[in-house]
Amino acid sequence: MELHLGLSLPTNPFLPIGYELKQCPFDAHVNDGAGGCSSSVGGGGKKRTCFDDETRVVPKTLPLLLWNNDQPNEEDDPNDLHDNFSSSSSSILKDDGEGLVGWPPVKAWRKKLRRNVHSGRPNNNRMVAATTAAKCGSTYVKVKMEGNAIARKIDISVHRSFESLTATLMRMFDICDEHLQKSFKIAYQDREGDWLLAEDVPWRTFIRCLKCIKLIRSGC
Amino acid sequence: MHKKMAFSFPDEVLEHVFSFIQSDKDRNSVSMVCKSWYEIERYCRRKVFVGNCYAVSPRMVIRRFPEFRSIELKGKPHFADFNLVPDGWGGYVFPWIAEMAGALPWLEEIKLKRMVVTDESLELIAKSFKNFKVLVLSSCEGFSTDGLAAIAATCKNLKELDLRDCEGDDLGWHWLSYFPDTYTSLVSLNISCLGSDEVSFSALERLVGRCTNLRTLRLNRAVPLDKIANILRHAPQLVEFGTGSYTADLRPDIYSDLAGAFSSCKELKSLSGFWDVVPAYLPAIYPVCSKLTSLNLSYATLQSSDLIKLVSHCPNLQRLLVLDYIEDSGLEALASICNDLQELRVFPSDPFGVEPNVSLTEQGLVAVSSGCPKLQSVLYFCRQMSNEALVTIAKNRPNFTRFRLCIIEPTTADYLTLEPLDVGFGAIVQYCKDLQRLSLSGLLTDRVFEYIGTYAKKLEMLSIAFAGDGDLGLHHVLSGCESLRKLEIRDCPFGDKALLANAEKLETMRSLWMSSCAVSFGACKLLGQKMPRLNVEVIDERGPPDSRPESCPVDKLYIYRTLVGPRFDMPPFVWTMEDDPSLQQLSRANLM
Predict the structure, then answer these.
(1) Which ipTM score applies to this complex?
(2) Do A63 and B480 touch (CB under 8 A)?
(3) Alpha carbon distances (Å) from B232 to A172, B191, B217, B235, B470
(4) What does the mean pLDDT of chain B come to?
(5) What is the nearest CA distance from A179 to chain B, expressed in angstroms?
(6) pLDDT reading at B75 higher than 90
(7) Spelled out in words, what is the top-level CATH class assigned to the domain B7-45?
(8) Omega before residue A63 within 30° of 0, cis
């Protein structure tokens, strides 16, 4: 990887006049006496107010890694980096067409409010796109348990059946006793705001219409 | 023999002088002049701002400022807004309320952002602060209308109850009736985020009717259009109003009622709401449009022609939030009509569609940047951009302070040249010398970060996604951006080197968020060990990071400076990298 900026001026014809690429500031520090590239910022005037008035011992820390021009590292091989990066990234790019988590960066409540659009546009209107939580870019669904004030959230996309969903919910709310487990039912609210029992619909239908889940006690 | 103290003022005089100094930064400077100024200032500081609730403990704040009346606290990182922070991460306000309850009986204002606020916390607020006046919950969660009922019932002097973008559990509207009949001090009420459909209009109307100082009222979607006229008639003095659902059958009596009610509101400056809007009812607000300075149409699914018609009645607009239905043509109209515009936010109507559903491109933004000389703050979602446009925008508007551009498809190149957008964003930072906040998108290489590090000297907050080639990019930012306080990064190939080379820089910032990057667990550990004044939190729902090799990248990383060491309320999927044991004494000493 090229650490030294011997870049030529950009040849983009739309550059404003006088727009020049300055040398990277860090170049100036490469040869400082300490042999390292100390950060040119962060000292001096930018220190925040201390909250207590005891004299603080400010440890003089060197950067934890010396930024050294001389030794290109194997780690810096961009291919390597990308392998490392993509294989363990959990926010995977376009996984199964389900979309990225949190992208585009639109607040969750804005997505919730896209119901019953009267835009008057015939086919072009792809609003109310959210027929599955996954399409919203967020696969997390709110879960409440009857009698419990705190709502939780689960990632619905990791489940493929009611069995696995139920198991996770039981664990989440610490319902260990089998007998007790059987006394709960999964109810869900669909996109129209209606509450339904999960057991009454096929899994596919369930996740397509699902808005939020509630664990309710059945029978007594 | 007398000692002449010719140059010292009595404390009361200094206190009086300091009372004119409101800004936190100035107050902090004042307190550093000398010990006696520090002492005087700390007793008379009335407003405290804590940008990260985990940077300091409530006890420390109270010890230093024993007489504050107003506190503002922020909890979760900004990316929590986009579901990147798992539930249960933290940001609980209760410990703060508990500490303040005993020590500050005269607390008047609590403003919280991205915190978990339980009903228990609300009840404790209601019980503990006899003169409580202002509660602002911004993007908070964890409470229900039961907690609101406690506030309503108990806080006789409440002036402001503002729930913006909160996720509260709405169990109905009866909490409104908990405001006693004798209660009349309400000045501002924002319940636009509450969801319930069970509305009690009589309670609302009575409340609005008896609170003659009411200036701000933002209703929620459940309030139908035909009820608004009545409400407005009870409060013609309103300055800011948010409608509910702006839809009804087309009936002349409803229309004339509504139009009449709006025309009686001579002070209205700000409108919002407009859910499910029916265009035929829009002209009802025309009587107030010429005075409007702020208009939030971001829920209004109006077509471009209706939007242009509406906007043409509002020449004094300073702030506009709108969906991309406005299209380039609407923005061109806006540019020619609204010359006072300072802030524009254009949201995507179909963020997850692959094809554009509206004709909104970079041209709209170019038009606005050209026609609105006071434009300072922009948030713009679009599907195509070019370096040429960005350079034009930068040259047109060097007074930008906030520039957030979101090109919806990640790594989208300049659509004209197919090149990265480095030069375009480079122009933005070069020309807009006062830029404080920047969000990047599109295809970007390390070069853009070089420009940012070189030019963005006043930049305080930077958001990066799907950009850069490697560590050099991050290094440019951390070593070049002198004013940087908040840096949030997702899905970029930034690894250990830049982070470790700039460890010291992290102590000068409020926080750094990195998710889906390439920072290894080993580097996190090293950083945590060597930097006692940083909390290095690894967030990983896959399980403990030490169950994987040290070179394995962590899923999410949140680093923030703190005076109080690791927090104690972490959920199972968050690990704080421990300090070096020999330095632990130092951090413990700071705990109290």
Answers:
(1) 0.86
(2) no
(3) 46, 16, 10, 5, 57
(4) 93
(5) 28
(6) yes
(7) mainly alpha
(8) no
